[in-house]
Amino acid sequence: AADRGPVVLAASSLQGALGEAADAWAARGHARPLLSFAASSALARQAMAGAPADLFVSADEAWMDALARAGRLRGGTRATLAANRLVLIAPAGSKVEIAIQRRFALAAALGSGRLAIADPAAVPAGRYAKTALAHYGVWDSVAPKLAPAENVRAALALVERRAAPLGIVYATDARASRRVRQVALFPASSHPPIRYPVAILKASRHRDAAAFRAFLLSLHGRAILARHGFAAP
Amino acid sequence: MAIDIDVERRLGERNIAARFTAGPGLTALFGPSGAGKTSILNMVAGLLRPDRGHIRIGERTLFGPGIDLAPEARRVGYVFQDGRLFPHRRVRANLLYGHDLAPPANRWMGFDEALAFLGIGHLLDRWPQSLSGGEAQRVAIGRALLAAPELLLLDEPLASLDAARRGEIMAVIERIRDELRVPILYVSHDRAEVERLATEIVPIGG
Amino acid sequence: MAIDIDVERRLGERNIAARFTAGPGLTALFGPSGAGKTSILNMVAGLLRPDRGHIRIGERTLFGPGIDLAPEARRVGYVFQDGRLFPHRRVRANLLYGHDLAPPANRWMGFDEALAFLGIGHLLDRWPQSLSGGEAQRVAIGRALLAAPELLLLDEPLASLDAARRGEIMAVIERIRDELRVPILYVSHDRAEVERLATEIVPIGG
Amino acid sequence: MMSAELWGIVALSLRVGALAVALTLPLAFALAWILARWRFPGRVLLDALVHLPLVLPPVVTGWLLLVAFGPAGPVGRWLEEWFGVVLIFRWTGAALAAAIMALPLMVRAMRLSIEAIDLRLEGAARTLGAGRWHAFRTVSLPLALPGIFAALVLGFARSIGEFGATITFVSNIPGETQTLPLAIYSALQVPGGEAMVTRLALLSVVLSLAALVLSEWLVRRSHGERARRGD
Amino acid sequence: MMSAELWGIVALSLRVGALAVALTLPLAFALAWILARWRFPGRVLLDALVHLPLVLPPVVTGWLLLVAFGPAGPVGRWLEEWFGVVLIFRWTGAALAAAIMALPLMVRAMRLSIEAIDLRLEGAARTLGAGRWHAFRTVSLPLALPGIFAALVLGFARSIGEFGATITFVSNIPGETQTLPLAIYSALQVPGGEAMVTRLALLSVVLSLAALVLSEWLVRRSHGERARRGD
Lengths: 233, 206, 206, 231, 231
Ligand SMILES: Nc1ncnc2c1ncn2[C@@H]1O[C@H](COP(=O)(O)OP(=O)(O)OP(=O)(O)O)[C@@H](O)[C@H]1O
Ligand SMILES: Nc1ncnc2c1ncn2[C@@H]1O[C@H](COP(=O)(O)OP(=O)(O)OP(=O)(O)O)[C@@H](O)[C@H]1O
Ligand SMILES: [Mg+2]
Ligand SMILES: [Mg+2]
Hints:
Chain B is an alpha/beta fold.
């Protein structure tokens, strides 16, 4: 149908920001894009299977690379949409104070509790967190004290519910929750840049695909992303 | 119509065997409990497969070398020793089950006639579970007769009926035997019943 | 032990009512099919609750104002019109069900004795589903007798048994009646049977 | 008060659940019948196959569906070429995912009922002139009704709740494949979405409650009146 | 060839499945009995409550478990204070999640069997001197066995496959809460993890096949020999 917007497969963590961008795009008289939010892995597999989607926005480079290797991307359309940061969080009432530095006492701060993070074996946010902790030499001491969650939101929920005294999530998640407190921000140098790449899929047939991608990357689009806490790439 | 039966069948550790011919009319199978009477009726009805032998009713071979008619093709009317009314159908629907399946030309007993002599007209809207023992038995008899069978298999049809009812039903059986000439295989332990009804008595087992 | 029964119970559109007293011995309930005989036995056994009335056996009130003994407290032995053997227990386990629950001091019939006069010794390892009609009935009689009841409820216990077996069982019933003085409520349509066994005949419905 | 968007999600869930159950019912019954009545080598294997969607994590089932029914998959390509049927990103695909997840539950429920049927009643029907098929339709099938109703309820509830296989196979497209559980997932992803989650979860509960009440009513109508004589 | 790590995952899955089924069995039977036999106001509501874990997306169930049984949750706090029992991040918590997800399936299966019991047999047992409880134990319970076995199989299979509620409630801790589905999930998340996924999925299938074969054998032993007389 002509009045259906392009199909955008996007990582769940972008839900708020891309939703607003889609509204802004629609306000300009375009058909509103169909946004499908799920884990990057699930979406990438759908794209891999040749699903009739137009845009893919991943939460990490690895899945975008995989699609590129599989020849599923339209050449020259890959770009970085936004960036994010990692933060150390605690439940809102917690008094804990921790400064992030070499061999900082994370394990001691956890006590008998666990550190809630997205599964480092599976989820991008978890992989970044693992690199950052390794960077400061504390990974080995906290590795046995992890609570690896299905995604960043689930890790956040563990801290919100005080099931875990500390957690590592994206700055964008921490910002929006009143139940948690940001304890510290991980310096950007401690992990590879957290980037959300966007690309048009080879299977794309929608004429608005390129225009919507351009809109997202425009000043207006970036302003919306910034409002949701995402950093510029 | 003559009946010619020669069957053998192993059941657990027992071997049920019977071999008899009988003329038209009512053939009573007479024998002690556990002799195999019900098993023989089951073989005639096509519900139990003989290990060997043959079953012929008049011109028709129901079972024999290379022949094993399906139960529905045998056109028997079977009153089971254990009732077997359909629990999910009311009495009326139980009675009409075989009736509606039979070609109208073959029917030899009307619905109302069956209701009358069985005295079950007031039970039509009841569920089988709520019937008394004798009521259920009469419905089972009606169901079998209404299916327009060419051969009747009656396994203790009058057990647990009172004398008056018993007499009425025996009269109907006699009519079926004599006027309609439907051959009947009849199992009963009641001497008086058998002596009144039977054209021939076949002793089973013992 | 005297029996004093006065009960009433609505079943669907029918009202079952009975009122009679009887001396010790065997009281036969005699009446047409559907008269309510089974329902009365069920009320005595505690399986069907009377709407009003009382049931007294000798000194014991089984049912009455403010009294409604549980079935297991009534100590009746019930041979059901429809068998009701436990399908998940072999014949032996069916027979021993009530036997093992009764205090040994109360038992008045031995296991082997029951097997002998019922002729079911060879069936002990069989499943009820594989029994013939008469075999199942004999097992049901054995199961009830072995539970050491103080009152016997027999609902057409001899239907579908052959004459020889019938005679043997009647002899045992006579012995229970006369020697053990267990009161018996007996339902049968067989005149001869009733006349031979009954101390008293109570007409039901009609 | 419910917004048009919520209504759309509910309507879609109902549509997906209804199609899923309708799709599965005959297949599940056939499988239940075969497993209950036939003895053949490989029966346990078939049984295991039926249980598969229960044992595998839903994401794996969804992934397998994607591999088989996706545009590049063998079945998917064939369906598209011959029938023009596309399942990926469509509500029909969501129904397929739900149907497969509901299958094991439905088969088991019906199998229990079929195994409980008194075979002698079928024999009685045959002697009354009913062919195999007629006896099946008029005796076996009605006697298996309790299992069929249970299967309907279980299958519908499972379909209404299906998440993992659906999102993996047909993604999370509003208006097309975003059923209640997927909408709940989306709401869970936005910080502070708990109110929405609660609202959507309550809607799910109401739907299943309605389905339950309906099925109880159907059961009672179909054979509740048959007084059971427990005496 | 299987690494020690894989063995650990399989052993944990078995442990979780076994505890989940053992936990649920008596509760599910009681619920099935009540739903099959009792008539009381609120019965449909109880029925709906039992179906809840089927209707709600597993993640929501996991989240509710977290809210209730987490260290800050009312039940969780109470359990810890009074019994020193901690469920979160423990394999026992995984079993609880699996148990709750399996509950509706188990209740339905047993309920079907209980509803099929011939009440007159219980009456017969009572006249033979069996009290209510003894009649239940010796007659009703054995006659409900087909449903109990079906419940065991369904419940175990569901437990072996449970993912969403488990990972949300007790997270994905290797050696403690990482059951097969969670390991499969991890493998599915990384590009090129398909080989591992296949290996783990095959393990799940083998487990459930073994459970099926075992249950078939138990069923046959318990009452397969009872020749059914279909004639
Ligand atoms: N599956 C089986 N295994 C072992 N024995 C069996 C099986 N089925 C039937 N029998 C036996 O076969 C015999 C014949 O049974 P059948 O029902 O034909 O007897 P019957 O003559 O009708 O007896 P009754 O007058 O008591 O009804 C019985 O002794 C019965 O126990
Ligand atoms: N639930 C019910 N609804 C309606 N009528 C019922 C119900 N239960 C029993 N009846 C009727 O009550 C009457 C008495 O039944 P009961 O079984 O006591 O008869 P009976 O004297 O034992 O008869 P039979 O000699 O035929 O066994 C019967 O007419 C029966 O149809
Ligand atoms: Mg017989
Ligand atoms: Mg009676």
